[in-house]
């Protein structure tokens, strides 16, 4: 197969659960072993957007929620093994709680296996509550990573920003609603002298003054735009 780009995007909004026409992950089957089993050596661009997560079962005694999507670590391992030319990954989730355990069906460990197995140039993570500073540390050794966009990644802090400053080829960084990143973390990028562009949007602990010193091109907004609201599943449907 010569497929180079695969894109899946849910079309319904977060609050469709208020109706009787709820759309779950259409391929979800807890007993299936081969869902999302990719095998495409030419695949370069993978986009999975607006993946709705809904509770399958709760256990109140241990504060645990079972996996809600069928895209698991095994799916990531299949990608890592069979799609070695993958260069762009865009993962976007809707309705995920910021706290661990995650409703997302895979772990950071599985995700990093994929990142370390492929020549990823562009990585976009939206509401990825499995991703934290240890993930940023792993990304810092990615030899091909040029652009990183993080949206609502609450587990990423200034420590993670310190790691990412050492990424060899990173030149474009975008942070949207990453509320645990501060001026201190942004200043780490200035010390590296690598960034061509920096985008900061609605990151409450990052000031314009700190952002202005970091890259040749800087876009800064303290407010949440309509486009960002749409990205996080709160508008624009």
TrEMBL record:
SUPFAM superfamilies noted in UniProt: RNI-like (SSF52047)
InterPro entries xrefs: Leu-rich_rpt, Leu-rich_rpt_Cys-con_subtyp, LRR_dom_sf
Pfam families: LRR_6
Domain of life according to the entry: Eukaryota
Any one annotated GO CC term: SCF ubiquitin ligase complex
A Gene Ontology BP annotation from the UniProt entry: SCF-dependent proteasomal ubiquitin-dependent protein catabolic process
Protein name: F-box/LRR-repeat protein
Natural source organism: Triticum turgidum subsp. durum
Species lineage: Eukaryota, Viridiplantae, Streptophyta, Embryophyta, Tracheophyta
């Amino acid at each position: 197969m010569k497929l180079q780009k695969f894109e899946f995007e849910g079309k319904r909004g977060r609050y469709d659960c208020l109706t009787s026409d709820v759309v779950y992950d259409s391929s979800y089957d807890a007993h299936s072993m081969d869902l999302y089993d990719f095998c495409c050596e030419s695949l370069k661009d993978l986009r999975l957007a607006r993946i709705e997560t809904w509770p399958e079962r709760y256990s109140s005694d241990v504060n645990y929620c079972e996996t809600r999507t069928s895209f698991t670590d095994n799916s990531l391992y299949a990608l890592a093994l069979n799609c070695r030319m993958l260069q762009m990954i865009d993962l976007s989730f809707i309705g995920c709680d910021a706290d661990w355990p995650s409703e997302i069906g895979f772990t950071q460990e599985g995700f990093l296996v994929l990142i370390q197995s492929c020549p990823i140039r562009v990585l976009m993570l939206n509401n990825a509550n499995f991703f934290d500073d240890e993930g940023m540390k792993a990304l810092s050794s990615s030899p091909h990573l040029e652009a990183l966009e993080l949206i609502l990644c609450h587990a990423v802090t200034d420590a993670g920003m310190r790691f990412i400053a050492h990424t060899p080829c990173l030149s474009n960084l975008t942070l949207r609603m990453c509320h645990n990143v501060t001026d201190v973390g942004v200043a780490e990028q200035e010390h590296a002298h690598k960034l061509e562009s920096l985008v900061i949007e609605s990151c409450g602990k990052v000031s314009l003054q700190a952002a202005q010193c970091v890259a040749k091109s800087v876009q800064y907004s303290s407010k949440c735009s309509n486009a960002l609201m749409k990205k996080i599943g709160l508008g624009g449907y």
